[in-house]
Amino acid sequence: MVLKPIHRVFMPFYFRIRLRHAERLPRDGPMILAPSHRSKWDSLVLSHLTGGPLRYLATDMQFAGVQGWFMRRLGAFPINTDRVVPGPIRHALELVVAGEPLVVFPEGTIFYYQPDEIHPLMRGAAWLALRAQRQLPDHVVRVVPIRLNYGERYLRFRSRIEVVVGEPISAIPYLALPPKEGTLMLTSELQKALGDVVNTSEEERYPAPGLPNRKATRMGEPDGHAAKAWFRALDPNRRFAIRGLHRLRPRWNLVLLFYPGLWLVAAAATLRAPSWPVWLLCEAVVGVSIHAMATLMHEAIHGTLFRRRAHDRWIGFLLGAPALFSFTAYKVAHLAHHHHTRTRRDPDDFLNVSPNRLVRSVVFYAWLVAGMLAYLLHVPLGALRLGTRRQRREIITEYLLMAGMAATAFFLCKRLGRIDVLLQAWILPLSVAIAFGNVRSWAEHALTRPGHPLTHTRTVTSNRVVSFLMCNLNYHLEHHLFPGVPWYNLPRLQGLLADEYRRAGAHVHRSYLGFLWEAVLAGVHGSTSSVAGEI
Fold it and tell me: Cα(395)–Cα(325) distance, rounded to whole angstroms?
């Protein structure tokens, strides 16, 4: 009773809600409503659509405090998406069998994308529909796709909301297939009804507000539709497999403990090294660890470490601090690079430094020596120019925090008479991290061919040791195609796309030494060979 005034009076007053194809919504019978998930307002928007209360599956982390009380009154009940227990699933199945409309958000959590882009779907909605259909042979269990399109990313008073009801999908045809295959095919059909996924990095579709929309600025360069057209041309099974690679696996986050631990162990070893070769090796290990932590900060930028953005944000800050990178500054600058890869608006492209060929050549070769040092200045300056007022405040705050951390470490070491600890455990190894970053970043886009998403970025497969030390960022072509795929799935993604690479002539090298030799000979105005056929 308390909620009726909310979805009948408050919702149409506070928002401008437009319903499209509401007649497609079944009036009765067993059904599962499968909407896109764009905001915490989604549940109330759906209640406004149906004119009454609904039952919802929601993640258990949202049931704390006042919000949890309100969600229970709204009809939600919790489920743990990391460790599924039978109770909530059994209850959800009972509701569908009893004919109560059940809402299942198939994306699993909230994703702030453009209206026509959907995160890879989980299989729960399809599984429930098929199980209910087996228990109701005389009825038709329907899955109703619903797209929630918001006029603004963050809703405010009188924001526009468009609710589009898709054609209900009957579960009956999929019962003839084996259970697993039927679930996969029904999920794929639901994905198609909601809209295809193209780029699923949470922030990729929302670059810094100071950036203009991407346009073709060089001869032969496509706009963002080229990536969509290429992805949709893939066969459905491959597209479904790619969607599955976007799933986050929290156990891989143990690497967040491994590299800081490796740093501490190697730093302690440098202070007790019996000879200079051992000392050099330990210094190199510390530098590689710092570089790896900065690479994991890059993963946090794209939201591929944790399911909660707040965790990505603050863990990312701690990971980037030893390498002197502000999380927010890097986020603003890096997403600008993703949004304008190999165009005149790309802040990381060598060709955009100067129109003078000599200057370009000097910058190109100097990058191997001092590239990341220059990048440490380039990132905050570019981010302060492109970011919003709030982002500028966050950038300044983060650099002040890093300065405070560094000053605290300096005064503690000075007070203890151990400045050598600061030098050997951090300052000197930074040169190794910088050299490592120089080579990696040089190989990512230099001497590639702009004009197509498969040719403007390079992958260097190298070996498993190098890949692990770089957290698979050497699979850079795969990362640019699908920034929402976590680092541990990038090699599998390359395997799925190998034949596409061969047809497009993608830049895939087997070793960094091989690439460096070609690049030094070619120069900034040349191009390296495509060796995608060797994949």
Answer: 10
